[in-house]
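Subgroup meeting minutes
Present: P.N., E.W., G.H.
Scribe: E.W.

1. P.N. recapped why we're keeping a running log of single-chain structure predictions: easier to compare across weeks, and new members can see raw inputs and outputs side by side.
2. G.H. added today's entry (153 aa).
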Amino acid sequence: MKNDKELVRMAIEMAKESKQKGNLPFGCILVNEQGKVILKGENTINTDKDCLAHAEINLIREASKLYDYSYLNNCSIYTSDEPCPMCTSAIYWSGIGRLVYGLSKTEYYKIVGRENPNWVFEMPTRELLEKGGRKLEVIGPLLEKEASMLHLD
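Output recorded in log:
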């Protein structure tokens, strides 16, 4: 499989594309067992006027139409940032077997702040996934400095 850091960089590029389109800077990719990128996802909250249109949710909606649960068990999702609780749960329910993320939520909130309680939902991905019966491999944070640049301007 391709290098995890290279694939996180691809997710960061998707986040940049999302930001250029007027959306929030979050992106992800789905990679099959052979290491081939099979889907890309970007945040479309603003352009779709849909508060649930996070990058991971958009990708998983497409993936679940194309691939069955057992196929997704052998796939990895690479995300620019540590997924929120909603996206973490969607990854869990989709059957995706592995998650690799760039920027941790801890570092994310250091950048964007916690002043608006409506936008703060701090539950670490690993902590949430420990509550489930299915084990999902989680790797990250990777490339935090690169991923943090998405949120600095």
